[in-house]
Specification:
The complex is a heterodimer of chains A (560) and B (709).
Chain A: E1 2-6, H1 14-28, E2 32-37, E3 56-59, H2 60-63, E4 67-73, H3 76-79, E5 86-90, E6 92-94, H4 115-123, E7 132-134, H5 137-147, E8 152-153, E9 179-183, H6 193-202, E10 207-212, E11 224-227, H7 234-240, E12 243-246, H8 256-262, E13 266-270, E14 285-288, H9 293-305, H10 307-323, H11 327-342, H12 349-380, E15 391-399, E16 409-414, E17 420-427, E18 433-438, E19 444-455, E20 461-465, E21 475-483, E22 489-501, E23 513-523, H13 525-530, H14 536-539, H15 545-556
Parallel strand pairs in A: 1-2, 1-4, 2-3, 4-5, 6-7, 7-8, 9-10, 9-12, 10-11, 12-13, 13-14
Antiparallel strand pairs in A: 15-16, 15-18, 17-23, 18-22, 19-20, 19-22, 19-23, 21-22
Helix pairs in contact in A: 1-11, 8-10, 9-10, 12-15
Chain B: E1 3-5, H1 11-24, E2 29-32, E3 39-41, H2 47-59, H3 66-86, H4 95-109, H5 119-137, E4 138-140, H6 142-153, E5 157-162, H7 168-177, E6 186-189, H8 190-193, H9 201-210, E7 217-221, H10 224-233, E8 237-242, H11 244-252, H12 261-269, H13 282-300, E9 304-308, H14 312-327, E10 333-337, H15 341-348, H16 358-361, H17 369-375, H18 380-389, H19 405-412, H20 414-436, H21 442-445, E11 447-451, H22 457-465, E12 472-479, E13 489-497, H23 506-510, H24 513-519, E14 527-532, H25 533-538, E15 545-552, E16 559-565, H26 568-598, H27 606-618, H28 622-631, H29 653-665, H30 676-682, H31 688-708
Parallel strand pairs in B: 1-8, 2-5, 2-7, 5-6, 7-8, 9-10, 9-11, 11-12, 12-13
Antiparallel strand pairs in B: 3-4, 14-16, 15-16
The chains are: A alpha/beta (560), B alpha/beta (709).
């Protein structure tokens, strides 16, 4: 069969590893297997896996020209790419419930204020009616209970040739001297790596090692650090340590504890969803309720003080390991599931397209609605809270020859409802040099007092705009329109993409650091009109503005 | 399926529905509305009229400002609509009827306006302006155009029905521009028959003309009244097209923003494609020149203008593109005149006993008789023969030849006297015949000429040809130490001029004048004389000329051969190096025309253009210096006169240092008129161009920056 996996990023992670393992083994079983990414990727990024280069690598655009027997989206966003590839069957490979990875919503933080919607959007990927394969019982249950899906369960295998008790160690274990291993990326909040290290220290563990996929040079509190090591080297690290401290608050299918069991160790984990796949408290590991940190410390101390107890748990781990399938077995199971699916009628592409269109449209509407609600709330009463992250300003910059790049910007948070002065520093990359200020990310009125561009070193003013008349030279694009004939340059922002383009700078030197200082105040329309000398008819004098504001206020249900 | 929402309803679904319907309704005709159905506009629809007013104002040289023109138009449109309604017609106006009345109104406001425009010509001008503005702001609405194409492919009959004030003769070019030509079996426009969709009468007319019942038609359009309600009332099936994205765009349309400097600059800067060729900014300087040229010509009321060869070849093409792409028509006619300083000199001279040859001797004092005779455009063999016959020294350079006994002897030579007078009168007669062949009354109206620059000596030659009786106005990219200026022999440099005072940014444009000449290279050699066929055949065989053009002379049976010098090496360089650069410039130039319209007929400030030019001359890329050097042989520059320098290209560190010190100490070396980067490279210190260019750039723009702060 011609099979394609839609992959997010090719770099080293547990989830990607699983895909490469299944992929390469399906290859061995005689299938034609492709990995499909949005953009073409260089081989250097997947070389960490010994066999990934044996797979066919395609960009989405290339894959769009072919037809597959089976396409497997492997994470939530790849489900939304389905309409771009053609296949007989579409099969969702669910490795975790990714909506759980979202940070909590915070209405006062411009970054976090829509997190609930983001969560819903991710969650909505499970509503597509296509066959599902998953790797953990709890995910299977979740999909059944919430979406009435009967997912195929294919447990991840393990490399038994690598993960074994006998073999070299980085340093041999020493009975009576507990060596703890913390595993996971240091910067992913739900992996709790810094916290795990801190708890080990608190417990007075003699030696703490860290195995991480993050590219870091040093991490505080760690005795030995293994950053981005290849899979071949990890067993030696496991074999050197006694206990794996893995305190993730969300997991799909827990890989590392199982690997640790295979290498003769035990583990301490939180009782998160999925742990019961193979981890049994007091038999092969200690399982602690989430955030019961004193218990984690107590468990660690117990293992440190009682080598016999440690041995008992290690023996339990070895027993679990012995009964777990290896990758060839897992891949055969995956192959069986795919064959079973392929014997069923094809997935309707029209259905997939329609589902996607509807979902994207619904999602757009939800975000829009949320924006209007937020606008409405502010029009009724000032926003409470003293957080400084209400709003966000972005300064894009580019040399004309190079053109605008979406990542070429500096940004800063600011508080709505009061005058603020924001300075960001940017570097000149060529002339003419363009600067675009996106002053807000919400609906409302932005009053701009000045924009100044100053050479950081010499203090030379490169551009300055300080009177409302001078703002006439700026090009207002996107969701922003100039309003009013007042003492301040005022703009109505009707969405999250207001843009003010400055006339290009033509003088200075390449490499020069520029301070772009913007003095502004962002507020609601009602607040803006409340100031006595702003007669609404003249304040909103630009053509069409009055109608627009009336419409906005109508949605709000009357002005204050 | 009675509605189609762009961005929501899939085009394939609509197509399937219509094809299905076509299979059930025999002879189904699918009718399309045009505006906001097949095409959408970048600007709010009403703004196109304001743009047209701005263009018209430019044509009439601002004698009436655009706002006044627009206000008069609005008022007149309203009156015409009401008149039409009162006469039982449509509540609409049509441009062919509107334009003559508009001209009347304008002349009432400003007597004597557009004196040479008849009512017909003005109507055509209005049609052209409107069409140009429309096409520049329109772009196809892809899904609808795709649908139209697939219906056509499937053999379904399709027609266009539009309510519009321009007739179908203007619609056809619009369809061409959008690539819609051939997709319609027929086009119905309200302006053609005075019946509109809005009243339903146009639908009746369509049915009559096609001789088909309304139930065989299906109308697709955006207007709920004229496209849907009125069509349905006639018994025509309808499909209401909605385009929420476009609606949002119209709502976001900000007329106040159109002139924002940053927007205008941005649009113009986007005219140059990324990673462009060498000296690509020249297209900006040329566009700015054309803009200024048009304004100056319009101000003078010029109708015809001569572009001097060779630079005039490319300039004339750009002048025509400028007019066609901005106004949709050529308001001022350009002619290409094959002239050169050498070809026109002899014709401009007086009889030998009255002539002082100031044109030569004021510039070159110390020359040989050979140099003198060749500059009279005599062939080498003939010149030699003249000297041999009177035993004159042909080769030696005499100091102050004008007052030298050898020169006196030459003037006494019988052969020289004969040849001089014969050739002089030939050239005079022939050049005048050549000018006459254009069929213009220049003796009465004067001559308006355009050339690259600098002193304007060809213009002077023509001026003297007519003994000062023909008024000549010359427009140049740059005018420099222009001599012979007078009321009837005017010269004006539009990008740069040194009189009465230096124009702004003079040094940026003047720094490398050869660059203009290089980039404006022509497909042929320099003009080298005007002959009748018999005279041409009589010429000594070593003349090296080719006939570039043959024009009919005044007398019925005679013709004038315009000859040029044929230099194969020059031709090859043009084909290989210059022509590709000109293609890029032409593209950038046209994109600026579009930018100009999209910017609401606003353009960046003069400084903006000067800075683009300054980049080329003060901050050239290494490959630009190489290109320039490969096209200009240094012999021509006389650099070898700097005997102090090593110039053979291989330098020791010591020599380079020596040269560097010389250059730094002597202010004049880099002021020889040759482009400094070339001199510096030849001296083995090419990198010094960064410092020198920086210094010069600063000198041009420094005061300006200080003022800004």
């Amino acid at each position: 069969m011609k099979i394609g996996f839609l992959l997010g990023l090719p770099d080293i992670t547990g989830g990607t590893y699983v895909i490469y393992e299944h992929g390469t083994r399906l290859l061995d079983l005689g299938h034609d297997v492709s990995i499909i990414t949005e953009e073409p990727v260089s081989a250097a990024r997947y070389r960490w896996h010994p066999r990934a280069s044996a797979l066919r690598w395609l960009s989405l655009a290339e894959a769009a020209k072919e037809r597959f027997d089976i396409i497997l989206p492997t994470w939530w966003q790849s489900v939304f790419q389905l309409s771009r590839v053609h296949a007989g069957h579409y099969v969702y490979f669910v490795q975790s419930i990714e909506s759980r990875f979202i940070k909590a919503e915070d209405p006062l933080d411009s970054d976090l204020r829509n997190m609930g919607l983001v969560r819903d959007y991710r969650e909505s990927s499970y509503t597509i009616d296509i066959p599902v394969i998953t790797e953990a019982e709890w995910i299977r249950n979740y999909l059944y209970e919430n979406y009435n899906r009967n997912a195929y369960l294919v447990r991840n295998g393990i490399r038994k040739d690598l993960y074994r008790c006998d073999g070299p160690a980085v340093e041999p274990r020493v009975r009576g001297r507990l060596r703890a291993l913390v595993e996971g990326p240091v910067d992913v909040h739900y992996k709790n790596v810094p916290k795990s290290i801190a708890l080990c220290r608190q417990a007075g563990i003699e030696e703490i090692w860290l195995l991480t996929s993050s590219d870091v040079q040093s991490v505080d509190g760690v005795d030995r650090l293994f950053s981005r090591v290849g899979i071949e080297q990890t067993p030696a690290i496991y074999r050197s340590c006694d206990v794996l401290v893995k305190l993730s608050s969300i997991e799909g299918m827990f890989g590392p504890p199982l690997e640790m069991f295979h290498c003769g160790g035990t583990a301490i984990v939180y009782a998160v969803t999925g742990h019961d796949e193979y981890i049994v408290h007091n038999k092969n590991s200690y399982v602690v309720d989430q955030d019961q940190d004193h218990e984690v410390v107590a468990c660690l101390q117990k293992l440190q003080q009682d080598p016999d107890e440690l041995d008992r748990l290690k023996a339990g781990g070895a027993e679990t390991a012995a009964s777990w399938p290896d990758w060839s077995e897992a891949a055969r199971e995956f192959d069986r599931a795919l064959r079973d699916i392929s014997s069923r009628p094809y997935t309707s592409k029209t259905y997939v397209d329609k589902w996607l269109d509807r979902l994207v449209a619904d999602n757009g509407r939800r975000f829009q609605q949320r924006e209007i609600e937020r606008f409405r709330a502010r029009e009724r009463a000032p926003v409470p809270g003293d957080d400084d992250r209400h709003n966000f300003i972005q300064v894009y910059y580019w040399a004309e020859e190079q053109g605008l790049s979406p990542s070429g910007f500096e940004g800063a948070y600011f508080k709505s409802g009061e005058p603020v002065e924001i300075t960001v520093t940017i570097t000149v990359s060529g002339f003419p040099f363009w600067i675009r200020v996106d002053p807000s990310v919400r609906m409302g009125v932005i009053m701009l007092d000045s924009i100044k561009v100053v050479d950081r070193n010499s203090g030379t003013v490169r551009y300055s705009c300080e009177s409302p008349e001078q703002f006439n030279a700026l090009y207002a694009a996107g969701t922003i329109r100039r309003i009013g004939r007042t003492d301040r340059a005022a703009y109505l922002s009707t969405g999250d993409d207001p843009q003010l383009i400055l006339p290009a700078l033509t003088t200075g030197t390449v490499g020069e650091r520029l301070d772009v200082t913007i003095r502004l105040e962002e507020c609601g329309v009602g607040e803006y009109l409340e100031v006595p000398d702003r007669d609404p008819s003249s304040a909103l004098a630009a053509p069409g503005i009055l109608q627009r504001v009336k419409r906005m206020l109508k949605r709000v249900g009357g002005s204050r | 399926m009675d509605s189609w929402i762009i961005g929501h309803t899939k085009t394939e679904l609509v197509e399937r529905y219509l094809l299905d319907r076509a299979s059930r309704v025999e002879g189904l005709i699918v009718c399309f509305d045009y505006f906001d159905t097949l095409v959408v506009r970048d600007v709010a629809p009403e703004f196109t009229k304001q743009l047209a007013a701005r263009l018209l104002s430019m044509v009439i040289s601002n004698n009436l400002p655009a706002e006044t023109l627009y206000a008069i138009r609005q008022k007149l449109e309203k009156e015409l609509c009401e008149e039409s309604r009162d006469d039982g017609g449509e509540l609409e106006f049509y441009l062919p009827a509107f334009a003559p009345r508009y001209l009347e109104r304008l002349r009432k406001e400003k007597p004597g306006l557009l004196p040479r425009f008849s009512s017909e010509r003005f109507t055509q001008l209005m049609l052209d302006l409107e069409l140009r503005v429309e096409t520049s702001v329109q772009r196809p609405c892809r899904p609808v155009v795709d649908l139209l194409a697939s219906l056509k492919e499937a053999g379904v009959k399709t027609i266009l029905i539009s309510d519009f004030y321009l007739p179908s003769s203007s619609f056809t070019p619009m369809l061409d521009e959008q690539g819609l030509t051939g997709l319609f079996d027929q086009v119905f426009v309200s302006a053609d028959c005075g019946m509109a969709k809005g009243s339903g009468r146009l639908y009746q007319r369509v049915c009559e003309e096609l001789d088909c019942p309304p139930d065989r038609l299906l109308m697709i359009g955006d207007n709920p009244h004229s496209d849907i309600k009125m069509a349905a009332r006639q018994g025509i099936a309808t499909m209401h097209l909605q385009n929420p994205e476009q609606k949002k765009q119209y709502e976001q349309w900000q007329p106040g923003q159109i002139e924002a400097q940053a927007r205008v600059d941005l649009l113009f800067s986007q005219a140059m494609r990324a990673g462009s060729e060498c000296f690509a900014e020249m297209a900006y300087s040329l566009w700015y020149f054309m803009y200024l040229l048009f304004r100056n010509l319009a101000e003078q009321g010029a109708e015809e203008v001569f572009f001097f060869s060779k630079e005039g070849e490319f300039l004339k093409q750009r002048f025509e593109r400028f007019q066609e792409e901005v106004f949709g028509t050529r308001i001022i006619t350009g002619h290409y005149l094959l002239v050169s300083r050498k070809a026109t000199y002899l014709a401009s001279l007086r009889p030998l006993d009255q002539e002082d040859f100031a044109g030569i001797f004021n510039h070159y004092r110390d020359i040989s008789l050979r140099d003198f005779l060749l500059s009279l455009n005599l062939e080498e063999s003939l010149a030699k023969r003249i000297c041999l016959k009177s035993n004159l020294d042909y080769e030696t350079r005499f100091s102050d030849l004008r007052n030298h006994p050898e020169f006196v002897k030459l003037k006494q030579s019988k052969l020289f006297q004969t040849v001089y007078e014969k050739r002089r009168s030939q050239q005079r007669d022939n050049l005048i015949s050549y000018l006459d062949s254009f069929g213009l009354d220049y003796r009465q109206n004067g001559l308006t000429i355009v050339d690259v620059g600098w002193k304007g000596s060809i213009q002077d030659n023509l001026y003297h040809l007519f003994g000062g009786t023909v008024r000549i106005q010359g427009f140049y990219l740059g005018s420099l130490i222009a001599s012979n200026k007078s009321q009837s022999n005017r010269k004006k440099g539009l990008l740069f001029d040194d009189t009465p005072v230096l124009t702004p940014f003079f040094h940026a444009y003047n720094n490398n004048r050869s660059l203009f000449e290089m980039m404006l290279g022509a497909s042929h050699g320099s003009a080298d004389g005007y002959f009748t066929r018999a005279q041409y055949e009589e010429l000594p065989k070593d003349h090296g000329r080719v006939v570039q053009e043959t024009v009919a002379a005044g007398r019925a049976d005679s013709e004038i051969l315009v000859a040029t010098l044929d230099l194969p090496e020059e031709r090859r360089l043009y084909q290989e190096k210059i022509k590709p650069l000109q293609a890029v410039m032409a593209d950038t130039f046209s994109r600026q025309n579009r930018a100009y319209l999209r910017a609401g007929c606003c353009l960046p400030r003069p400084e903006w253009f000067a800075r683009r030019h300054a980049r080329m001359v003060f901050k050239p890329k290494a490959r630009e210096v190489t290109l320039f050097e490969s096209l200009y042989h240094l012999e021509n520059f006389g650099i070898f006169e700097y005997t102090d320098f090593q110039t053979d290209g291989s330098f020791t560190v010591r020599q380079r240092l020596h040269n560097l010190i010389k250059v730094i100490r002597s202010g004049t070396i880099l002021e020889s008129g040759i482009w400094p980067p070339i001199i510096l490279r030849r001296l083995g210190i090419g990198y010094y161009r960064y410092f020198d260019g920086y210094r010069r750039h600063l000198r041009v723009f420094k005061n300006l920056e200080e003022r800004k702060q």
